[in-house]
Amino acid sequence: MGGGRLFRYRYEQVSATEAINPLCEYAGWGGKRNPVKVVFLYGSWNRRCCSIVQECEGLHHAALPIVEKLRCDLLKEQTSMGNNVLYLTVKVDDDDECIDVCTRSLQEGGLEVPPELPCILLLAHLPTNNGNVKMRVEHVECRNLEQAFIDTYEDTEKEYGKPTSSIAVENLTSSLKGAWSRLFDAQGNLLPPQPKQSKRNTLAPKRRVKPEPAIRIFVAGDKSQVGKSSICMGLLGALLKTDKYAPSDLAYIKPATQCEATQLVEEFCKHRGITSCVPIGPIVYYKGFTRSFLKGETGENSEDLLQKASEAVDTLAAGKKVVIIDGVGYPSVGSITGTDNASVARACGRLFSVPGSTTATPGRVPVPVLLIGKSGVGDAIDSFNINATYFSHRNVPVLGAIFNKMNLEGFYSLANCKEAIDMYFDEFQPHKRVFGYIPQIPELTNARENVASISEEEQLKDAIKSADLFVETFAEHVNVDAIVDAARKASLSYVQSTTSPQNSEAVSGAKRSIEESEVTQTSNQSKHPRIAPKSATPGIALSREQIEAMAAASGAAGG
């Protein structure tokens, strides 16, 4: 590229493991010298970056003119840029190993990739006294980075090697120059990492902007096997497809479950880089659990279990934009232990302060519910109403419904049912809405059983293909933006109705007593207090293994 400088780059993607390898065995290097690496990282959700990679096998192709412009600027200032520069492109969610390397901290030997992608990292390796090599990483912080790639790539197609001029490109050049100065001194010597210093405003204190809490959505079904987990997977995938959310913005959890087998949504989250995924939460209705709970043998009461669910969701929601909470069975499942879906939805809502409250415990906003309904018309509406009433009776807001597994032909076709159901909601349920109708997808039939039996890599790939197909169909038939917006408004409305005296008369259209309107943790308490064991010393709890063994010996089939 002129000036006697040697620039090496690869015209294909590399793994994250290759990127952090201090010994470069690429053609022309021979593993003898450690070059500076300019690493371009992107995710599968960065569609425009994916298009560039498909066309020219690497983002570095689009960025070479930018780095060349930087080199020219540094040479004018008589600043050495070094003789060895290697360009690499890494897809962060290419496989599980890549995700692991990208998310690990620098201290743990990872790249500590920032949540916003695409991004650029400068990597260099510093020899230590004991003969080892220490990696130095500098993040090139730049807004509109993807636009800079697009601008440069489009101009490169016209005239290769000509530095591009645009606001995004100028910002990137400036950011690269700053990162380089933090990595090397004027003679090209590698600098030790500098501690980050916070900038103080000596003129006026800056207001700390509190991040908006994560939108929490509770997905419930009118029966078991209606497709709740598939809908959760569809929501996550469709949100990614909007390009408004990165995988790090989303989270999935099933706080209570009857089934501990691997679910397709779990594999989908791994595939899409959604690392905040908890497919089996703290409440498990294992074999013998119910009767042992009633006898006091589990050592936990309803409040203990709900508190565990609350803490699990709160931990997962930290730093997220949307959290999808998967229900279990139909709404009243778990009521015998005080952990039915309505109780879990109330317990897992975000915290908020109640002005004038005499208790130190903040209140919780019940998680708005999205009901998943069956195909048909009359039975589908009847099931929706009885299940929505269950939640509304507990002051848990119901947003509306998605009707799943609709037939494509015949009297009960999707089109015919949609027409009738839309008419019903318009006239009799104006405050709720149907967010979509999903046709039946043969490839997802018995998906739970298929995933649970997966042992071969090819079978897993087939399952992921089915998941991607469902997400594509889901995104075509469901308005995910409307669901998120409705959940945000429902949560805000609940807070306002609780904290504003003039609005505290009704929540979800139901009358509430003064005691019920005091939103505290006591509102989540169950009718089932801790019961002392009848045949055991008080305070002694049996283990899960003991309870399951006794239940199996007695012929129990489930929880």
- What value does the Rg take, in angstroms? 28 Å
β-sheet strand percentage: 15-25%
Report the biggest beta sheet as strand number plus sense, adding barrel if it closes.
7 strands, parallel
Question: What is the helical fraction, as a range of percent?
Answer: 25-40%
- Indicate the structural class: alpha/beta
Ranges where pLDDT stays below 50 over 5 or more residues in a row are 1-11, 25-32, 198-206, 503-538
Instruction: Give the CA-CA distance, first to last residue.
Output: 69 Å
Q: What's the total number of strands?
A: 18
Oligomer: single chain
Rough outline = globular
Number of helices, counting only DSSP H or I runs of 4 residues or more: 18
Strand order within the widest sheet? 9-7-11-6-14-15-16
Average pLDDT figure? 77
Tell me briefly what this model is:
The protein is α/β, with parallel strands linked by helices and about 550 residues long. It contains 18 helices and 18 strands. It has a seven-stranded parallel beta sheet with strand order 9-7-11-6-14-15-16, with helices on both faces.
